[in-house]
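Summary for the steering committee. The consortium agreed at its last meeting that each partner would contribute one worked example illustrating the joint modelling workflow. Our contribution is presented below. We chose a case with several input lines so that the handling of multiple components could be demonstrated. No manual editing was applied between input and output; the record is shown as generated.
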Amino acid sequence: MSATEIIDQQALNFFVKNVGAEVASQLEACTRCGLCADACHFYISTGNPEYTPIWKVELLRRAYEQNYTILGKLKTAIGLDKRIDTEDIAHWAVLDFQACTVCKRCSFVCPMGIDIAGLIGKVRAGLTAAHATPPKLMAMTKNQLEKGSPDGSDEAKWAAWFKWGEEQLGKSLPMDVKGADSLVVFTMLELNSFRNNLVHIARIMNAAGEKWTLSLRARDAFNMGTVIGDGAVQKKLAERIVKVAHELGVKRIIVTECGHGYVTLRQAAHNLFGETLPFDVVHITELMGDFVRQGRLKLRKGYFDNEHRITYHDACKIQRIGGNFDSPREILNLIAPSSFVEMNLNREQSFCCGGGGGVRAIPEAYDLRMEAFSLKAAQMREVDATDVVMSCSNCRLQFKEGFEHFRIQGEVKGLVEMVAEAMIE
Amino acid sequence: MTEKTIYESMVERGLSRRDFLKLATLMTAALGLEYSQLPKVVHAMENKPRLPVIWLEFQDCAGCSEALTRSHDPYLTKLLFNDISVDYHETLFAAAGKQAEENKERVMDEYEGQFVLVVEGSIPTRDNGVYCTIGGRSAIDLLEEAASKAMAIISVGTCASFGGLPHANPNPTGAVGVHELVKDKPIIHVPGCPPIPEVITNTIAHVVLLGEIPELDALGRPKAFYGQTVHDRCPRRPFYERGQFAESYDDKGAKAGWCLYKLGCKGPTTYSACATIKWNEGVSFPVQSNHPCLGCTEPDFWDGGGFYKSLAAPPGAEAARGAQAGFASLGGAALAVGSALYARKIKQKAAEEFKAQKKKEA
Amino acid sequence: MDWLEFFRGPMFQIALLVFILGMVYRFLRIVLMGWKKDYSPPRGSAAAGVVKTYVKGLGFLPFLPPKFPGTRHRPLTYIAGGMFHLGLFVVIFLSTPHMEAWRSVLGFGWPTLPTPFIDGFAAMSMIGMIILLSNRIVSPVGRMLTGLGEWLNWIVVFLPLLSGWVLYHHLFGMPYQTIFAIHMFTVDWLLIWIPFSRISHFMTYFITRTMHGAKFGRLGVEP
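What follows is the complete predicted structure of the assembly.
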């Protein structure tokens, strides 16, 4: 076997060993109607049929049919179906990593209820096993494993940020507090681009009287293992946070403006460790919602009402599959009741920003993700909104770049900073 | 034996030209021809000599002959017995035994290629046809001889047409219809158990009078009488369309005259003029008397899965119910378990290979 | 035995048994592939999610508000798909002859609709199928996803509908038995074909829909 053949075989073996009833039933159920195409922001914005979500699962389907079904074997024997080769792997690596943000919009459109994005996650994992993952993502993975953050930020840089935060706050931050209720975990996106989030969140926590803590050992909720689909990496990175949470005995982990970090800890982590972990994983959005509902946080009514219309962008990991639809809306209806307007496609129907799922990190995907972003811009135009608010740093960066790319006048805001501003301390 | 035309024989009996034309008009209508065809009928009756008819019976119940005598069309019946010469008919013939047979032989020879052969009953073919013999000769033999000399053959009744009741599963005598044995003569099928009397008389009259074969359908039946299904012309059809069905013979629906489809009516697949010509001087027909159509004009109507089973209920479905379906499910389950165990092996092998390769890479 | 008797007798019997065997096999084979336990704590009720997703699934039928407004080719495919499926269900379950066929299989019957309704639904179903096929031919996505299997499936499903239609309307002057035999043959073939093809999605639908509802219900999301 040549080197490439071994790699192809490795991808195939990965697909085959990971097919269970869940995958099999979904692959068997697909009638290839193509409705998922119209859920995908990449297909809608470009019209390229290859961006049809179920087409991105083609490798997995072929592996399944050719190895587990008689008809599939027959079809391959007479040349109606082709075995997976190096070319296919390279082709689908582009489709699955650059033209899919794993936003799960398709999973909600499928009339058969197939979780297409979930299957795409499996394909990504197989591609990673075959070393076909975009090099930038692999480099980020290496960085995170070695230094702690995908961009190479090490403990010293984080410590400096925390120190800066303390200066801004004029108050010390709780570090490694045993017996605290909440462990707050940031991401490197906030460290690099939204430094103020640290201050905002600290103020919110303090104002609500929450017993919270930070930890330098559990600093980055980012999880490259989730992005590339490598279970071992995913577990290793999640373990850093889970270990500290165990040690400090916290009741919950608060994930700040990071989408995939939130779902990784909330859903995947339990399954990675094979047990139900003894703490909640809560997103900062739902936490703020709870605070407001419980009266622990007082907001100035109508503080953000002005002549601009402001809309809310539902992030895929936090809202669509996280279910935190109501908290941000309750907050916005308090602080900007007359300026706040919903986009026509909202809640679980919302379009992805186009930069999630690691796509924003891949330089080659820039044009494509800007194409996809044009849909989001159109959605804003439809309701005459100039400003947009969201609770995911990755979306925020994508929006900022998109606004620049299309020369759109407007403001991209984080929900955390708005709450911190409108809060009565 | 005579060479006279029908017109001549009518004049001889003291009938007027007016009577003749009246008959010709009725004939035209009865034969299912258009009015414009009247001159053709008149011309035939004036000029063509009457053709003799020989009526053979094999494996039958004589029900068709019985029906023939009940034809209520006085003109046609009279016509048939007065003006058309039925020169041999076992049941109706006065002559018997050797004398009758001799008469038949004589007519067949004298009118070779000109007489019409009517066959009633099926022909047994198993064991050299010993199951039906007349005067020591087998039915096959008799049929072949008569057929070879006839101008055309009319198979009266479902037995002669398609084998009928004797042909029904398991068909112990190897009974077949005429068309299975005779291939070189025009054959008209007049199926029914029995056929409507008027359909028998009219068809014979058509051939005998006009000397031509009427227009036939795919099964060799005159289109004039077998062109539409009982269902198509059924007075209960509106109930079918409305979805109003009798569920049993004494329920509200049955009393209200609703459709008998669910009780097994074969009207939709049965081509016959039952619903229009009807029986006993147009008094009624089975469906009208609250009994489902049995489908007696169709081949193999005995073997159609039951007279009282709905037409839409495939007999195969009933057969597959219960034990067979259970075995099929068990078979499927066993296959699935076996196949799943095999799949587990495939999975394990893939996992091991994957692990080994990972190790090598590391 | 003529063709009609063969197709509604022994062949139907064989087809039915192949169908039962095949579907049991397909179902168990999928289910026995192995499940993973989900350890993550639930945020909502999986059962409620399942109920909700089935109720929402009905929204894919035509004339009800579709779920995702505003995308490009969707309305056509959604509505045509809904027309086809709704029409097919009505024809298969609510026409008298078909109910009688079911009764002979199941042993019990139910009320049926008058034939003009069935006629309309059959027409609707066939029009839906033709639209879906044109979509497969015209749209680039449809073309890409349509293989030999999809073509065969379309034909195998369309023929019983078409032959049933011709049968009911006595079209083309064909003898009733002939077209009835053709209808039964196409039905037999459909029954045999289902376990080998994606037409079996009427069964896998219930697996995937239930999974979908349970999964997203558990996540506390609108499924």
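The first helix of chain B runs from residue 6 to 12. Chain B has three domains: 6-225, 228-319, 322-362.
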